Amino acid sequence: MTHYGSKTVVKRKLRIAQTDTSLDNEINIFIDDVDDYINEQLRHRLGFYDSVGNDVTIPLTATTTPKLDDKIRQISNDFAVAKFRFEVDNDDKLLQEAYKRLDHYLDHKYGWVSDAFRVTTKITLSAYTGASGSTITITGENFRKNRILIFYFNSIEQTTSPVQVISHTDGTFPSSGTATLTIPSGTAVGAYEIKVVDGATDDADLQSQLTSGTPKGANIISGATTRFTVTS
User: Is the CB of residue 222 less than 8 Å from the CB of residue 144?
Assistant: First the structure.
């Protein structure tokens, strides 16, 4: 199980020697309690699905969207310390400060999400300039998972290698290997748009279209664009 807090850090903040294990069980309970509370608050803020329909995974980790950051770890450790102090001294000052600090962080980081948590669909090129006929590698993130992707250069659908590129279960692509696109030979010098969009693989009619042509615009859910400059 992923823990936001660290027993080692909490013990150091409490000035308990790492070799002293007499309170480890209690500290672990406090860390678990803090994890549960933070996850509950994150779920309230983020919901269950993001803006492209992918699951919002909680607890957060280094690979989820959104990602776990160091600030949550710091807050979690301080929260566990505050719970320990309250249990020992019956003084809730630190505990109330911990609640406020978490609320302030969540307000600043996520606000109150009235709709699905919005993610930014993005594509990255191995090169943003090059000659016509050159080949580039394209990767993407925050696309819908397990979708066939369609690639465009200057609004014209292109054939990639491999011919069929499918997004991974985490919304990135390619799901394995590499996805490459060749800039059409004879393209004049200038800047052009590269666009990648997805379609619904759970729609049988659309699925048949995706293998041979451009999907209907109404069925395109997520996509991203960037610019490539042809230099010669």
Answer: yes
Give the integer Cα–Cα distance in Å for 122 and 135: 19
Return the DSSP state at 218.
Answer: G
Q: What are the b/e assignments for 153-187, b being 16+ CB within 10 Å?
A: bbeeeeebeeeebbbbebbbbbeeeebbbebeeeb
> Where does CATH 2.60.40.1930 sit in the chain?
122-230
Write the CB contacts of 187 (distance below 8 Å, at least 6 apart in sequence): 132, 154, 230
> Token pair of 22, please?
């007499």
Residue pLDDT, tens place only, 111-161: 766 667 778 889 999 999 999 999 999 999 888 888 888 899 998 889 999
* Interatomic CA distance for residues 196 and 139, integer angstroms: 10
d(CA 2, CA 21) in angstroms, rounded, equals 21
* Helix (H), strand (E) at residue 156: strand 156-158
- Evaluate the CA torsion angle 207, 211, 212, 214 in order and state its sign: positive
Pick the CATH number of 122-230 from 3.30.470.30, 2.60.40.1930, 2.60.40.10, 3.30.450.40: 2.60.40.1930
Whole-angstrom Cα distance, residue 120 to residue 61? 18
Mean of per-residue pLDDT scores for the chain: 86
Handedness of CA 185, 187, 188, 191 (dihedral sign): negative
Span 161-174, pLDDT tens digits: 998 888 888 888 98
| pLDDT number for residue 213 | 42
